[in-house]
């Protein structure tokens, strides 16, 4: 994943849900009726996890993209990482990692960040060829991402390009959770007034606060795993009995 400031993304999401107040089940039902692409229609047919489902019972999938740049309108996905999990278990055997031939130019700046080169993508599959399997892995799950705008906007851009449709899904954003719950981060405003450096909410820095190990950054599969572990640590810290409804942390 790229690390962004708050103004980095140039596109707007097509749907802005209202956290626990948003009726995802009704939204999926409506989208199912209107969807044309078979795999997307099947994705919506599986329905959304009920808002009152205890966090411990929710099937999750951590999702991470590496991209050719920061703008979903002019850049595209170059790799995808998926890790299935619950709050108690990470299902490594079900993990997936794809290198994708991007639809836009592979820029030198992005190659330096994620290390995926022109030779790596020369014989790689197109996004379209992995789309059905990707949607299958997302069915019936809540997506977990660190700074979800990357995944929601780039995935929608890719679907619009290939099938002329968009996708919506409930998501748990580990970066937003950290900003919401961390006592250190809640003191950010006062620290800024005092001219002190504010705490980082980058994935590696968030993990460090929970004493999770350092992983090399900017590999989609590794970052998805890192995000999955971070969510488990956050839930264990702030929802130790894990019986709270998932609507308390999704968006």
Automatic annotation (TrEMBL):
User: Enzyme class, one word?
Assistant: transferase
Task: State the CDD domains in the record.
Answer: DEDDh
* Highest taxon above the source species: Bacteria
What EC number(s) does the entry state? 2.7.7.7
Q: Which residues form the Exonuclease domain?
A: 59-240
What's in the keyword line of the UniProt record?
Exonuclease, Hydrolase, Nuclease, Nucleotidyltransferase, Transferase
One GO location term (cellular component): cytosol
GO MF assignments:
3'-5' exonuclease activity; DNA-directed DNA polymerase activity; nucleic acid binding
Q: Where are the transmembrane segments?
A: none
* Function summary: DNA polymerase III is a complex, multichain enzyme responsible for most of the replicative synthesis in bacteria. The epsilon subunit contain the editing function and is a proofreading 3'-5' exonuclease.
Subunit info here reads:
DNA polymerase III contains a core (composed of alpha, epsilon and theta chains) that associates with a tau subunit. This core dimerizes to form the POLIII' complex. PolIII' associates with the gamma complex (composed of gamma, delta, delta', psi and chi chains) and with the beta chain to form the complete DNA polymerase III complex.
Name used for this protein in its record: DNA polymerase III subunit epsilon
Q: Species name for this entry?
A: Paraglaciecola polaris LMG 21857
Gene name as annotated: dnaQ
